[in-house]
Every structure is written in C-alpha cells, then in structure tokens.
Amino acid sequence: MRFPLAGLAFVAATAALAQAPKRSGFEDMSPATQAMQRDDAANPGLFFALDGKAAFARVEGAAGRSCADCHGADGGGLKGVAARYPAFDERSGAPVDLAGRVEICRREHQQAPAWPRESRPMLAMTAYLGLISRGAAMAPPDDPRLATARERGRALFTTRLGQLDLACAQCHDDNAGRRLGGALIPQGHVNNYPAYRLEWQAVGSLQRRIRNCMTGVRAEPFPAGAAELIELELWLAERSRGLPVETPSVRP
C-alpha cells in the first residue's frame, strides 16, 4: 500500500501535521454521534458506567470490602485517576494500566476473583473510573521509572507491522485528517477509552482497539494485558497529554 505523498512533499506534510493542534476524535465524528456522546440519557456507554458505580459500592471477596471502603462513596477521591494511567507499580516494578490497577486492588485488598480484561465487570469499572474523571486533562505521570517503557511504546508506534507493512504513525501522524477507505483518519488520541463503539455495540478497552488495528494490518495481535500493549498505552497517553477525558465516549 502506498500513501499519496512522496519525497519533499511527504516530509513537509509530516512536519505540518506534527505542529498541528491536538484534536480529539470527537471533533471528527458526525453531528449525530457527537450528540449521542454529549447526552448522558442517550449515551449507551453510561449503562456500563452505572454498572461500575454499583460494583464500586458492592462488598466482594474474602476480605469483605468494597472499593468505596477505601476510596469513599462514589469514588470522589479518585477524580482524575483515569487521566494518570498507565502508572508505575512499585510491587511489580513495571507499568500497569487502569485495568491492571483494578485487578491488583481486587486481588490484594478485596481478595476477590479476577475479572477478565474484556469482561463486562472490568469494562464497567474502568468506564466508571473514567466517568468520575471526565473533563480532567490527560496527565500521564512524569516518572523517570516509566521512561524506558514509554520509549519502547514510542518505538512500537513507529514500527511497521503485519502483511500490510504499516505502522500506527503512518496513519495517525503522517495521514491524520485524510481518508482511508472512505473513513476519516483521526490523530489517534486515547482520552476517550473505554469507549462505546457503534461497530461493537458495546464498550471496549483501548487494548481491544489496538488489537483490532493489528488484525487490520494482518499482524498477530499481542495478548490482552501484554507488556507491549501497556508500553504502547504509555506512549499514546503521552501523545494525548492535555486533552480532556471523555469516558464513556461514543465512536463509530
């Protein structure tokens, strides 16, 4: 597959896009889809978030504790938490994303069974944490312990993959704003996940979207929760720095 620009024209266009203001994918959606996201009564992702709110208050596990026992009713003390992940986990010595942090809390503080990453309970909880963070600016940690993992994520973002030999950056940096197969290519920011995608008819995680993209370029997707995906999330969070959290968003 060849992109339409070549030589000096390609270099000039890439430099211009690098200087372009950050745009949430929300700005590239149809007015009808934007209206659906804006209206909590019409946003289907809110059903997931409300399930998460109920789970937040529910006592679970052998420890007989709820999330609210530590974090307060409705999780008010966690406002903005979704804007600050992935983050460094002291115990494992590695970065964890928000789903990973939920799992650590369930295992260590509630002594509760694991939730699979794409299960409704996990998506509901992360959607709720996103909801109470809605409007907070993306602020990935400026933690030197994350630097090496973030750099590996940046390298993965620019690495060609699969039978189509495409990198994330070729779409979301070099050709953002153009069209591919009739669809507008967004800048690929991640301030809106977990997101309700109309094609899925459900809320899904950022890792699900990345794995879909890998399948689309005919590459073998990394397993859910893989270190490579979390490292890529670190870089994507850095690219999205400053954009407001939109969870639960609606996307085509």
Descriptive report:
This protein is 42% helix and 8% strand. It has 252 residues and is mostly helical. The protein has two domains: 45-132, Orthogonal Bundle (Cytochrome Bc1 Complex, Chain D, domain 2); 141-251, Orthogonal Bundle (Cytochrome Bc1 Complex, Chain D, domain 2). It has a three-stranded mixed β-sheet with strand order 6-5-7. Strands 1-2 form a two-stranded antiparallel sheet. A two-stranded antiparallel ribbon has the order 3-4. The longest helix is centred in the first third of the chain and has 13 residues, at 7-19. The two termini are 24 Å apart. The relative contact order is 0.19.
The H-level CATH homologous superfamily of the largest domain, spelled out, is Cytochrome c-like domain
Shape: globular
Tell me about the biggest sheet?
A: 3 strands, mixed
In the predicted model, the low-confidence regions spanning at least 5 consecutive residues are 1-17
| Name of the top-level CATH class of the largest domain | Mainly Alpha
Oligomer: single chain
> Can you count the beta strands?
7
Radius of gyration: 18 Å
How many structural domains can be distinguished in the coordinates?
A: 2
Short synopsis of the structure:
This protein is mainly alpha-helical and 252 residues long.
Provide tags for this entry.
single chain; 252 residues; mainly alpha; Cytochrome Bc1 Complex, Chain D, domain 2; 2 domains; three-stranded mixed sheet; two-stranded antiparallel ribbon; 10 helices; 7 strands; 8% strand; disordered N terminus
